[in-house]
Amino acid sequence: MSTNQSVGPSSGDELGWTLDRHILERQRRTPGASGDFTGLFQAIALAGRVIASKVAKAGLADVLGATGAVNVQGETVQKLDELANKILVRCVEAGGHVCVMASEEDETTIPVPPQYPQGKYVLMFDPLDGSSNIDVNVSIGTIFSIHRRVTASGPGTAQDCLQAGHKQVAAGYIIYGSSTMLVYTTGDGVHGFTLDPLVGEFFLSHENLRMPTRGNTYSINEGNRSKWTPGVTEWIDTLKSDKAPGGKPYGMRYVGSLVADFHRTLLRGGVFAYPGDRKAPEGKLRLLYECSPMAFIAEAAGGAASTGTQRVLDVEPTALHQRVPLFIGSKEDVADAERFVAKDAR
């Protein structure tokens, strides 16, 4: 579902454009649109509002801390992780818009219950990115990715989920911070909506976001330095020196929550990296739930996303929880990273 026409509030519009109106206007401009995408997006936005409410009062309700379980990634499951996962599934499953879902928290695909109709879309998501930061009140978020199904009919399968990122219909994230924002793209522009908690609606606040072609900050976990490859080490050392682009060292900004680090990079420019290293050559971040949707957003905003050797959106997934290295942000900064990483292959 794409359009080259700009959609936004008219001059002097005091009410502002809601997310619902924004999506509906795009639907009207898309020949043959059935409304299924609109319905799915409304369900995702509802889930975001519910999760935002839970996050806002996490310290007052019994949703902080770990459940005692370990997910498929080998990570300790936080109570709010589990709750966010259930909220997303419950908000989406009955609408008839999807045929299957997949979550970073679940080992296998999430089927649509047989009592509900099967839809034409596939939804994949990380219900609560950065959950290790929940207990310390740092910004966290929800990441989502939408594809069209590839199987003909009936219940969806893993085949529907294992699609390259460039085939995404839409991708986005919801960041729960000082305010709650939903940022999304259908591939032809990136738009941000801020939740008004009193009204209970997302209003257009950032239209046609564009990422600067080069920034002056980098985001990386310096604690992994001893495991980095020589190319990555040289790249970071260059950014921290007077040899950095522009002749001035880059500043370091690292939250440890992909949504928070990417959101800042989208607005300000620069580069976020979670490279492969000697211990984990495949990196840490999941292709389907984190890297592909963020790459789709980055490219739609004029940025870039790479594994260091390949465009992220061209990676053909082979497993639901496949991991890949990630370099994402301003186009020129990502290109610099690729040049240094290429030295490791020589």
Question: What does this entry look like structurally?
Answer:
The chain is α+β, with helices and mostly antiparallel strands and 346 residues long. It folds into two domains: 188 residues, Fructose-1,6-Bisphosphatase, subunit A, domain 1 (Fructose-1,6-Bisphosphatase, Chain A, domain 1, 2-Layer Sandwich); 129 residues, D-Maltodextrin-Binding Protein, domain 2 (3-Layer(aba) Sandwich), CATH 3.40.190. It is 28% helix and 22% strand. The strands form three sheets. The chain has an eight-stranded mixed beta sheet with strand order 4-3-5-6-7-8-9-10, sandwiched between helices. Strands 12-11-13-15-14 form a five-stranded mixed beta sheet, sandwiched between helices. Helix 5 crosses helix 8. It is globular and about 60 Å long. The N terminus is likely disordered.
CATH topology of the largest domain: Fructose-1,6-Bisphosphatase, Chain A, domain 1
What is the overall shape?
globular
Tell me how many strands there are. Answer: 15
CATH superfamily of the largest domain: Fructose-1,6-Bisphosphatase, subunit A, domain 1
Number of helices: 8
Helix content: 25-40%
Distance between the termini: 42 Å
Poorly predicted sequence stretches spanning 5 or more consecutive residues: 1-12
Structural class, from secondary structure content?
Answer: alpha+beta
Largest sheet: 8 strands, mixed
> How large, in whole angstroms, is the Cα Rg?
20 Å
Name given to the CATH architecture of the largest domain: 2-Layer Sandwich
Give the spatial strand order of the biggest sheet: 4-3-5-6-7-8-9-10
Q: How do the helices and strands follow one another from N- to C-terminus?
A: HHEEHEEEEHEEEEEHEHEHEEH
- Name of the CATH class of the largest domain: Alpha Beta
* Beta-strand fraction estimate: 15-25%
